[in-house]
Design a protein that fits this description.
mainly beta, 8-stranded antiparallel β-sheet, 5-stranded antiparallel β-sheet, 3 helices, globular, disordered N terminus
């Protein structure tokens, strides 16, 4: 009876563990969702000769034959990491012409330390490839503050919508938040910035401009402007 009880108990533990594990939901690891992940970001480095991105469609990333993209990166390349789940990481790689986003096995990556940036690391003009969307940061008038302003454009077939924001804030670790308007106003523009080892991750609440305008993206620092 004791042996039978132990078997049942062990089986129950296995069932409970299996029930706790949740499969990865589809459509949640792509460029539009990546910057809006709310549980933090990190940086990792590829430690295998090459590794393909897996898309986030149904049955992915588990069905590696079906889910594998043509794009791959090689040993030594660095990626940004958002969510981690069930042995997989949702990663962003900043390519020469555009970004690559998808699932990647955690075993192919080594997590890198995240530096706590000083104010000078934030200062500059940040852009997203050759688009007109830009975030500019400079020192604020008060010590320890930064003045941040952004401009973005969305171009449709028959219309062009624009947006902007500006504000002063203090850096907290590697985070900075801008509120344009009253905190009690649900329609006030809110922008959150996270600086991870030279990559500026921005997310907003879609209240900072016209329809479809958003600052949510991953930006890199542009060369200093000349006059």
């Amino acid at each position: 009876m004791k042996w039978a009880s132990l078997v049942c108990l062990s089986f129950g533990v296995l069932v409970s563990s299996a029930a706790i594990a949740k499969p990865i939901k589809p459509y949640e690891c792509r460029n539009g969702y990546f910057p809006n992940y709310t549980k933090g970001f990190s940086q990792a480095q590829v430690v295998v000769p090459n590794v393909h991105f897996m898309n986030d469609m149904l049955a992915c990333p588990y069905d590696t034959k079906k889910c594998a993209m043509k794009a791959y990166i090689v040993k030594g390349d660095n990626v940004l990491v958002a969510q981690r789940q069930d042995g997989w990481s949702c990663v962003w790689y900043h390519g020469r012409r555009h970004e690559y986003v998808g699932w990647m096995e955690q075993s192919a990556l080594r997590t890198l330390s995240t530096d706590t940036p000083n104010l000078s690391a934030w200062i500059g003009h940040w852009g997203y490839y050759n688009t007109p969307n830009v975030i500019s940061i400079r020192k604020g008038k008060k010590a320890g503050t930064l003045y941040v302003e952004g401009e973005a454009i969305w171009e449709g077939i028959a219309s062009v919508n624009s947006g902007s924001f500006s504000g002063v804030a203090k850096v907290k670790g590697n985070h900075l938040s801008i509120l344009q308007g009253e905190d009690s106003d649900p329609y006030a523009c809110r922008v959150k910035l996270t600086l991870i080892n030279g990559s500026l991750i921005a997310s907003d609440n879609h209240q900072c401009g016209g329809m479809n305008v958003t600052f949510s993206n991953v930006y890199t620092k542009k060369r200093s402007r000349t006059h």
